[in-house]
Amino acid sequence: MLYDSPCPTTVQRLHSALTREFSNCPSSSWASGTGQVCPRAGDWPVRDFHCFALQLFFFFFNCFLLHRHRCYQQNRLKSHRHDTEQSTNAQLMAGGSRIKPKMNQTRTPASQATTEKEPTINKIALEEHFSIGELLPTSAELEFFDPQLLGVIEPLLPELAEQRLANMDKAGIEIAVLSQTAPGIQAIADSPEASAIARQANDALHAAIEQQPRRFRGFAALNLQDVDTACAELKRCVSELGFVGALVNGGTQGEYLDNPRLDPLWSTLEQLDVPLYLHPGLPTNQPASMVKELDGATWGWSFDTATHALRLIVKGVFEKHPNAKVILGHMGENLPFYLWRLDSRYASTRYRNDIGTTPSAVFRRNFFITTSGVCDDAALQCSIAALGPERIMFSTDYPYEDIELAGRWIEQAPIDPIAKTMICRDTARSLLRLG
């Protein structure tokens, strides 16, 4: 330690002694309280000069103490940061399960992560959208979208060949897990038609995977209006087509996944040991506070999906199905930052005993999140602090977001290299059993 903190008692004693000395000096500003030296005739050469000198000394002495105290605080902060980094390194060497972010790193906005560099990490991306022609989103369904921008995006959805592979290469993506984009099957009101189109979309995706077996994997599309057909289709997609899970675009005709009618789906997911990716869809009922400017991906979808996820927790889905695994995109739909308050307020409700543990404990045990559509250092660091890097996976939200920007951002993110590798590929490889 370069500086020691001045003893407060010593400073107080010195201050009292000087105060007594000044109070005996009638011509001093200290005694008069005027803020000015008021010399008397005949006294200035001796007593007032001494008082003035003591005031000047006291002023500089206080400046000196203040400087020492600031240096002391700065060195304490540096020592704390050093100790924190040493502790983090020790945890990593010991194989610790959670890697804390370096919160003092300068935040790098996505718009600044533009340095042209070749990708250095082979990544697995989990929220990468495609669409068959029959399910391409329309401007009527996505009314909030800029029609010109939607016109640019739509041609990229069915394209599963050269252009998509080239974009993956630019972002350093080795494997893309593809899924039918929203609103998808969940928007089809007729149940037999929804089941037929779900099978058609899954077969089309399987054909694309067969063309690029080293680059593509798939999440199954399911019609949850007919749960028995959905379970059979999920088994077919995983066991016969090699899919790695299912993706559901929000609620199905106003029905959410906590409905007891859907228990067979959760049992099937557990039996197959595959995750369900809960992606936003078209909310059936918007809250009265919603306005069109906040609809869709700006806020409305995230709000609805986060609520959907919390319903699964508080309605006891994971009490019945403890081995079920759910993936949330968009950095967990803001939930990692809300877990403390969620526990605090839930504990004050009459429903607090409906589940056997805290909501945050269920979230940390049964949920994974991806970085899709959120290229932000601060959000990533907070998510690592809340969940650990072993619960976070890389995604880009292609073609709705800039795939190259997402790849550059995660490469330059100021996080531990081991955590970065886990997020970019290792966790996904383990969860999806990609070998």
Describe the structure.
The chain is α/β, with parallel strands linked by helices and 435 residues long. It has two domains: 8-93; 122-431, TIM Barrel, CATH 3.20.20. 47% of the residues lie in helices and 8% in strands. It has a five-stranded parallel beta sheet with strand order 4-5-6-7-8. It has a three-stranded parallel beta sheet with strand order 1-2-3. 36% of the residues are buried. The model is unreliable at 1-12, 26-44 and 76-115 (pLDDT under 50).
Q: Give the quaternary arrangement of the chains.
A: single chain
Average residue pLDDT: 83
Give the strand order, joined by hyphens, for the main sheet: 4-5-6-7-8
CA radius of gyration: 31 Å
Question: Mind summarizing the main beta sheet?
Answer: 5 strands, parallel
Task: Tell me briefly what this model is.
With 435 residues, this protein is of the alpha/beta class.
Give the topology, please.
Blueprint: H1 8-23, H2 29-32, H3 44-93, E1 123-130, H4 147-153, H5 162-171, E2 173-180, H6 191-211, E3 216-218, H7 227-239, E4 246-249, H8 263-272, E5 276-279, H9 300-314, H10 317-320, E6 326-328, H11 330-333, H12 339-346, H13 359-366, E7 367-370, H14 377-387, E8 392-393, H15 403-412, H16 417-431
Parallel strand pairs: 1-2, 2-3, 4-5, 5-6, 6-7, 7-8
